UniProtKB/TrEMBL annotation:
UniProt protein name: Riboflavin biosynthesis protein RibD
Cofactor binding comment, as recorded: Binds 1 zinc ion.
GO biological process: riboflavin biosynthetic process
Gene3D superfamilies (UniProt xref): Cytidine Deaminase, domain 2, Dihydrofolate Reductase, subunit A
Span of domain CMP/dCMP-type deaminase: 1-100
A single MF term (Gene Ontology): zinc ion binding
Residues binding Zn(2+), per UniProt: H25, C52, C61
Pathway named in the protein's UniProt entry: Cofactor biosynthesis; riboflavin biosynthesis; 5-amino-6-(D-ribitylamino)uracil from GTP: step 3/4; Cofactor biosynthesis; riboflavin biosynthesis; 5-amino-6-(D-ribitylamino)uracil from GTP: step 2/4
Keywords carried by this UniProt record: Hydrolase, Metal-binding, Multifunctional enzyme, NADP, Oxidoreductase, Riboflavin biosynthesis, Zinc
Length: 324
């Protein structure tokens, strides 16, 4: 979401952020929140992303700024969208506004990283997530699992709750066939408050049947497959064909860009995660290291990235990597 703040003589008199899709933009909400509109002509509006200059779902924000005679505009960064791309700033300057660009630009880029990746790289922002043991395993050997298909937890309840928060923050979540068959995950938000992400499943040969949670019709689900026989498709799930003899991650990213999906939390398993890593299609990785050992099992993915931050949740360690 874009954020906007209206300041009059060093005092915040209005603030706002982008409404859900189709609703008012940040500048509109910030200006509307100002009780005394007469102060606007003497105010400065700060906005994280360049005000739009075109008609879309809503009128141009640049026009609203000019309507209220706001003379000073401070912008964090330019909007790379082809319908904006500097035109909003130029419109304000042509009308006599003092426009300053690039204030806290690094922070604004971090805040808008999903949108910027989607616009510039024509793909979703990709977050890898997995948990591994202290001896580097992502899952135990088969004989250690219970007969019932369920998750084998490496991390503690605090870490698992954090993952549910992450799910609520991203547009979609992705796993492969083996993860579904072994763990039967729901891939929804249960330990946090928020919207369930779109479920994306890689199921080349349609091994996953309707008894698994991911096909329970409660959440929008997209299945990538090589099976073109539509009679084998389950109702209320969308099926997209890809060529599994070619780069899988690239095809998935291209297809989901066309579906207007801007961010994905990729939760595994090992083969799926490594596929995105090997194709260099990832932006950040969130790796938990639990306080346990397996001695044998499925090894964790191999990743080279910049370690940005390390945190602890009780006895779990969380390492955050960026793909620079």
């Amino acid at each position: 979401m874009v954020g906007a703040v209206v300041v009059h003589k060093n005092k915040i008199i209005g603030e706002g952020y982008t409404s859900p899709y189709g609703g008012s933009h940040a500048e509109v909400n910030a200006i509307n929140s100002v009780k005394d509109k007469g102060l606007l002509s003497e105010s400065t509006i700060y906005v994280t992303l360049e005000p739009c200059s075109h008609y879309g779902k809503t009128p141009p924000c640049a026009d609203l700024i000019l309507k209220h005679h706001i003379k000073n505009v401070v912008v964090g960064l330019l909007d790379p969208h082809k319908k904006v791309a500097g035109q909003g700033i130029q419109k304000l300057r042509d009308a006599g506004c003092q426009v300053t660009v690039g204030v806290l630009e690094k922070e604004c880029r971090e805040h808008h990283k999903r949108f910027l990746t989607f616009q510039k790289k024509k793909r979703p922002y990709l977050i890898l997530k997995w948990a591994e043991t202290r001896d580097g395993f992502i899952a135990p050997a088969h004989h250690l699992r219970a007969e019932e298909k369920q998750a084998f937890w490496i991390t503690n309840p605090y870490s698992r709750q954090l993952v549910h928060q992450w799910r609520a923050e991203e547009q979609a979540i992705l796993v492969g066939t083996n993860t579904v068959l072994a763990d039967n995950p729901k891939l929804n938000v249960r330990s946090w408050t928020g919207r369930n992400p779109i479920r994306i499943i890689i199921d080349r040969n349609l091994k996953i049947d309707a008894s698994y949670h991911v096909l329970d019709k409660t959440v929008k689900t997209i299945v990538f497959t090589a099976v073109s026989d539509e009679t084998k498709y389950k109702p209320d799930a969308a099926y997209l064909l890809i060529d599994f003899s070619k780069e899988i991650a690239a095809q998935i990213c291209e297809a989901l860009y066309l579906q207007n999906i801007q961010s994905i939390l990729i939760e595994g398993g090992q083969r799926t995660l490594q596929t995105f890593i090997d194709e260099n299609l990832w932006d950040e990785a969130r790796v938990f290291v639990g306080n346990s050992t397996f001695k044998n099992g499925i090894k964790a993915p191999s990743l080279v990235g910049t370690l940005k931050e390390t945190n602890t949740l009780d006895q779990d360690i969380l390492n955050l990597y960026y793909n620079d």
